[in-house]
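User: My instructor asked us to take a sequence, write out its structure as tokens, and then describe one feature of it. I'm not sure where to start. Here is the sequence I was given:
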Amino acid sequence: MPKPTQQELADLFLEFGDVCEELGSPCYGLLSRLTARNSALLGLAAHASRPPAPNVFLAAVHYLVLNGSTHPLSDRYAALTRGSGVDESLSETFTDFCCSHAEAIKQLVATRIVQTNEVNRSTFLAPALSVVYRESGARPLALVEIGASAGLNLFWDRYRIDYPDGGVLGDPGSELVLSTEMRGTSLPPDLPQRPEIASRTGLDLSPIDITDRDQRAWLHALLWPDQRYRKQRLDKAIEIATREGPPAIVRGDALLELRPLLAAASPGAALCVYNSSVLYQFTPPQRDKLKAVLAEASAERPLWHVSAESEEGLILNRYEASQLVYERTLAEFDPHGRWLQWMG
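Assistant: Let's start with the prediction itself. The structure tokens for your sequence are:
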């Protein structure tokens, strides 16, 4: 994939700034627009080995801040977690930090990739996977997540997920409580609260090991500094995954490694592949290849595919006998799980 020109990169930062504002991060909205008009900062971001460059660049700065930097930006970021500090002087402090740590930032953006593990995505994954459980005749689910990062959304049934109409999915006694705003139609009333899970397997180009301190630090750096509540959710999810035993996450390309994983999945279980905020990094031919892999795998047993990509919606596909049986849009959603509009 060719690297973007400086103007294309600037446009990416402007677009990301709008997204950040919409998702409740005025800090990253400000800093993205700053970067878009600063050639030195764009030069640092241009070292990103994989898209999206804005995310990995801002995460690289956050990583250095979180790992013992004494620069004034550390104090500014600390103030952000308390709900203050987003003003134009932050731009000056940020620019100075980046110039002072240019080599370290270049190294990070060239070697790290975006692997955000936003556990609040379970608010829209859980009902979709519960639909699969119901449609399969209440067979245990064999879960395979593409782009699993640290695999925290493989434990969605271990979280308590509250919906405004009083419905609860997952574990009602969990210490991690997730919630979302419902827009429009409520969830179907007959969804099982906590489906049985036969197996949990993740697949990722560069999986994050939550037992490794540095990799956990990168996971935290991918969060946005003015959204402390996301860090609190992440910390609790890591505690749960550590206690349960981290899931098996295979390192590899989904187009090469997915087929053998599906063949090895728990026999007798309902086979369910899912992804969230991953396919935007696939080219159109790669997406077509993924569909072909899923269809091929269904020659041996039926499988369901839940795809949660914010621009496309929450889509449920069923494959059987090497064919796509149906494709249904279940919902629209916020990529951080702040709201959900059920349609399915």
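For the description part of your assignment, you could build on this observation: The chain has a mean pLDDT of 95. Try explaining in your own words what that tells you about the chain.
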